[in-house]
Each structure stands twice: as C-alpha cells, then as structure tokens.
TrEMBL record:
PROSITE patterns: FE2OG_OXY
Listed name of the protein: Fe2OG dioxygenase domain-containing protein
Organism of provenance: Aristolochia fimbriata
SUPFAM superfamilies per the UniProt record, alphabetical: Clavaminate synthase-like
Pfam families: 2OG-FeII_Oxy, DIOX_N
CC cofactor: L-ascorbate
Length: 337
C-alpha cells in the first residue's frame, strides 16, 4: 500500500504514519511569513530596466513571477483544467501509467522517490518528457481526450517563454544574449503535473519538502485558488500567493553553476492543506546531454575563482536522483574543494 497513489478521491481521516515527519522536520506553518516575491512585467518596453530587475531577483530571491509573458489566460486555464481532469480519473485508468522508476520518460508516481525515501510526501505527480514533442507525445496519457493536444500546445509556448528568460538572464550577468542557449545545447524539457489532495494533518507532512530544482530554469503555474508554494529566504519561509496571470520562475542548479554562484537556486517547498486539493504544473528546461556545464569564464577572475567543477547534466541528474530530495544542495557535491 505504501507505494501507491493518494489521488483516489477518498478522504483520509488521519495521516498514515508513513507520511509523518519527525518533530524537527515539520513545516511549522505558523512561522511562515507573507512577503511578495518580485513581479516582473515582460511586456515592459525598457529592456535594460527589465533585465536589471530580473538580475536583481535572481541574485536576491532566486525566484520571481512574470506577467505579460505571452501565454494567454485561456491557455493557462486549459492546462490547469487538463491536469485536474487527469487526476480526477478513476484509479484503474491512472494506475496504467504508474511507475516508480525515475528513468522512465512518461510516468505517474507519488511522493518523490518512493523506493528510496523513508517518509513519503503528500503528492501524486505525472512526469512527462516534452521535447522534441514528436518523440514523446505518443507515450503520453490517452485520456482525457484533449490531453495530448492541450499539453503539446502549452509546452511549445512555455518553452519560448523560457528561452526569452534565458536571454534576459544571460544579459543580466553581462554575458552575450545567447550565452545560455549556446552553452546549454539542445535543451530538453520536462513537465511535472503535481496533485496534492486535501490532507488530514498538514502540519505533519509536505506536498514536497524543501528542495532545489536540478535543471536550468523552472516555469511554474500555481493553482490560482490555493496557495502552497513557499520559498526560503534569509532564514524564513515565504508563502508565494498565487497571482492569476503570473508564471512563477525559479533559477535551477544549472544557472547557479553557470553564474558561478551569483544567482541562487533556492530551497522551496509545497505545503498542503486540510480542505482543498491543489494542482501545479511545473515545466523544466534541462541542458542537452552533451553540454558541459560550469562557471562561465567571463564570471571568473582573480577575486572570483570558479567554485564548481565542470560536469555534464547526465552526471548531475544521476546524482540528484540517487539522493533524498531534501538532502544537502546537490551542487555542493560539485564544488571545487
Ligand atoms: O507545487 C508547487 O508549488 C511546487 C512544485 C515544485 O517545486 C516542483 O515540481 O519542483
Ligand atoms: Fe521545485
């Protein structure tokens, strides 16, 4: 039973033991503070100012939200609705896609890495590889019927938003506009549709415990009705209130490495609540398999020697999945000592 979906539609009366965190690891929800993370208007006509504010956000928060990003409200509602519909299907339908093998390219799973972890997380998730679309779409869920079409359309659009952001981020570091795009090679794209059912004891567990994202850049759609994302900053967890038009952006470990630590891939987590289900859709850009990642030469100097070794994303990703999600920052393992 331990390794199966929790999105059964049944309400749990109490939290099963295998989801309970020891006292020292609980979310301490009463201590969470409310603070806005930077909101950036990508429709801004002053590119220099926009690039400056993106750089500032990457340096001091590692997170920001963007509006006027080019994806319509209707598209955002469609993809969120499709994710919700997917998880509301009968268990028999969903279990056809179940797998706990992280190497599998299309799979429905639960928690994070059920085979390895000792305490589970109150989350089910559908993980998809999304680029190039034609290599993966045939493997995606056959239902709901509009799934493949809606998700394909969203993936194409969100990829473009991601590439625009990589240009701004490159410029904000003083690198050539296409620096990231060139270094990162033919980037892959993954998606996680996350589903967090109502949880009987949200104080004792997580949807996702504190973690950093191993990839380049993450573009997240939050449930517009239900908050749950929290970001760590200066000793506090900050609740990120959903903004109906915004995409939440966070710097992944790879940008932290390329920026030689100037930009932070920060800890974030998803908490759950007792009365509402919550959905989120995360899109991850990931370096191409041949790409060599490491601190940009232009960002190294006498006063700023490289802090990370060069590595390939394959090496990094294997390391990431061999750990627990909330272990030390995976990039620590690639530090020059
Ligand atoms: O559900 C959320 O708000 C966070 C999801 C997340 O951090 C992830 O999928 O990596
Ligand atoms: Fe994440």
């Amino acid at each position: 039973m331990a390794e199966t979906l929790i999105s059964s539609g049944n309400r749990y009366e109490s939290l099963p033991e295998r989801y309970k965190r020891p006292l020292a690891e609980r979310p301490n929800l009463s201590q969470v503070i409310k603070e806005e993370i930077p909101l950036i208007d990508l429709g801004c006509s002053d590119r220099r100012e926009m690039v400056r504010s993106i750089g500032e956000a990457c340096r001091s928060y590692g997170f920001f939200q963007v509006i006027n990003h080019g994806i319509s409200r209707a598209m955002m509602e469609e993809i969120m609705g499709t994710a919700r519909e997917f998880f509301h299907q009968p268990m028999e339908e969903k279990m056809k896609l179940y797998s706990d093998d992280p190497a599998k390219k299309t799979r429905l799973s639960t928690s994070f890495n059920v085979k390895k972890e000792t305490v589970h997380n109150w989350r089910d998730y559908l993980r998809l590889h999304c680029y190039p679309l034609q290599d993966f779409v045939h493997d995606w869920p056959p239902s709901p019927p509009a799934f493949k079409e809606v998700v394909s359309r969203y993936c194409t659009q969100v990829r473009q938003v991601g590439f625009n952001l990589l240009e701004y981020i490159s410029e904000s570091l003083g690198l050539e506009t296409n620096y990231m795009e060139t270094v990162l090679g033919e980037q892959g794209q993954h998606m996680a549709m996350n589903f967090y059912p109502p949880c009987p004891e949200p104080d004792l567990t997580y949807g996702l415990p504190g973690h950093t994202d191993p990839n380049t850049l993450t573009l997240l759609l939050q449930d517009p009705q239900v908050a749950g994302l929290q970001v760590y900053r200066a000793g506090n967890w900050i609740a990120v209130d959903p903004h109906p038009d915004a995409i939440v952006i966070n710097v992944g470990d790879q940008i932290q490495a390329i920026s030689n630590g100037r930009y932070k891939s920060v800890w974030h987590r998803a908490v759950v609540n007792s009365d509402k289900e919550r959905v989120s859709v995360a899109s991850f850009l990931c370096p191409g398999s041949g790409a060599i990642i490491g601190p940009a030469k232009q960002l190294q100097g006498k006063d700023s020697p490289p802090i990370y070794t060069d590595f390939t994303y394959d090496q990094y990703y294997k390391k990431f999945w061999s750990r627990n999600l909330d272990d030390e920052h995976c990039l620590e393992l690639f530090k020059i000592r």
